[in-house]
Amino acid sequence: AKAIGRGQFHFYTPEMTRDAQARIRMENLLRRALENGEMSVHLQPQVDTQTGVLVGAEALVRWNSPELGSVPPSRFIPLAEDSGIIVSLGNWVLRETCRQVMQWQGSGFDLPQVSVNLSVKQLERPEFIDTLDQVLVDTGMDPARLKLEITESVVMAVSDAFELLERLRRLGITLALDDFGTGYSSLSYLKMLPVQQLKIDQSFVVGIGSNPGDEAIIRSVMALARSLDFEVVAEGVETAEQADFLAALGCHQLQGYLHGRAVAPAEFRARWSVVA
Ligand code: C2E
Ligand code: CA
Ligand code: CA
Ligand code: CA
């Protein structure tokens, strides 16, 4: 039932399982969600581990569907990836995030950096760099304030990934390797990869204080990052104990419920504006 072109809709047939039907229904709704204004961007703070000062935020997309209610990204992002919808959705998130950050800047709230998740499907498009350039031009966003989060699979899936990432880096954009430790990175390509940051996956952070295996992995990621000169961001940090463990190892930035969940822009600004 896949591989149907843009703007086309799937139809039900009687023999389909309920699961498959639910999936098709969601995909059809997802196709129209952007133009119907059902998508929004929330922001989650990233803080300096040592000082607790706000250093940036990650943009995380939210879907509020009139038919389905609030749908978690874990349910619709994979669907968006499989159907190709992620290209227009991801590009919209990029533009909307830059627009928001620049609007804030114009009204006295300076977010030092903002992070946007990039799908392999976006990067694969030959026009991706042009699309990105156009967003930067249209919004006036300084590329030095933009960070793009990619997963290790990008390097496997996109044939000219190195060259593309190198071009992004030359534009002044920061690159972060997301969900680090969950994929199959080989050390030899990690060394050559033009990324500046590694994001330690929350599945390891959750084991701090209880799972010696997770702690050992975090220690080795920190050692690796130090010798290869990567900055490290830990995600899914929920407790002071986790934060202390990461701080002691020299982890640069923390992201997680301890410092704040992803919230709508107005709430984010209200929480993080420093009143002089
Ligand atoms: P991710 O990029 O790994 O984003 C981090 C996820 O962890 C977010 O889930 C965030 O809300 C959640 N999180 C942050 N701190 C904590 C914590 O302390 N505890 C726990 N339990 N969770 C925490 P979310 O927003 O549900 O997004 C899930 C995934 O969906 C993201 O994982 C990312 O892979 C994808 N995603 C979200 N927005 C976009 C987007 O605009 N484009 C693309 N391509 N993917 C996106
Ligand atoms: Ca991410
Ligand atoms: Ca992640
Ligand atoms: Ca993740």
Automatic annotation (TrEMBL):
Domain EAL: 23-276
Signal sequence residues: none
Protein name per Swiss-Prot or TrEMBL: Diguanylate cyclase
Lineage of source species: Bacteria, Pseudomonadati, Pseudomonadota, Betaproteobacteria, Rhodocyclales
Shown part of the complete sequence: 420 to 695 of 695
